[in-house]
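Title: Comparing notes on inverse folding

I've been comparing how different people in this forum approach sequence design from structure. To keep things fair, I'm posting one structure and asking everyone to reply with a full sequence. Here's the target:
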């Protein structure tokens, strides 16, 4: 299973379009693009739209509790939770061998200049899996404006730049598809 995800957590003000509707949108779009292209990877791609992240990660905890008996089937868990501004690469948590594979994979994104692999994936909703050794990835993007809108009345759809979101969706699509279609799972 290659899990792609974002969460719907606007609970105080605003619409939550950037935090974290953007992560949910690009995760949905990644699987939609793969389907529209008629691609069928070797492994299952699974979309999870988390809930309850701001209330202690209760949605992620419940999902983990329900699926942890199949942890050996999870190849990578991916979460986008820092907006969907201009992407620069991935945060990655995993073994050195897995990191080398992800670095090689990211070279496919040179045409859009998104090739960096940063230390440590971030994501409340994927932490349970990473603590148990499942490789994890998080989208890195230009967050200079993130806290202009984070949990504010300004977090509306007008914050989303369609071109930047398309780039984020491209990253999510390429990474999830390539990992799901590799001969072997990422090394643990």
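Reply #1:
Here's my take.
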């Amino acid at each position: 299973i290659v899990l792609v995800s974002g969460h719907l957590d606007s609970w105080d003000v605003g619409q939550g379009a950037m935090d974290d509707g953007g992560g949910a949108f690009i995760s949905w779009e990644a699987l939609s693009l793969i389907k529209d292209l008629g691609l069928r990877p070797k492994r299952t791609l699974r979309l999870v739209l988390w809930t309850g992240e701001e209330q202690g990660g209760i949605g992620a905890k419940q999902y983990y509790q329900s699926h942890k008996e199949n942890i050996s089937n999870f190849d990578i868990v991916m979460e986008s939770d820092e907006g969907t501004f201009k992407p620069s690469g991935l945060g990655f948590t995993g073994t050195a061998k897995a990191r080398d594979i992800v670095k090689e994979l990211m070279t496919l994104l040179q045409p859009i200049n998104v090739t960096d692999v940063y230390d440590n994936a971030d994501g409340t909703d994927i932490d349970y899996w990473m603590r148990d050794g499942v490789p994890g990835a998080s989208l890195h993007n230009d967050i200079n404006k993130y806290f202009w809108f984070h949990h504010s009345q300004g977090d509306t759809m007008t914050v989303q730049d369609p071109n930047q979101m398309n780039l984020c969706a491209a990253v999510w699509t390429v990474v999830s598809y390539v990992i799901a279609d590799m001969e072997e799972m990422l090394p643990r």
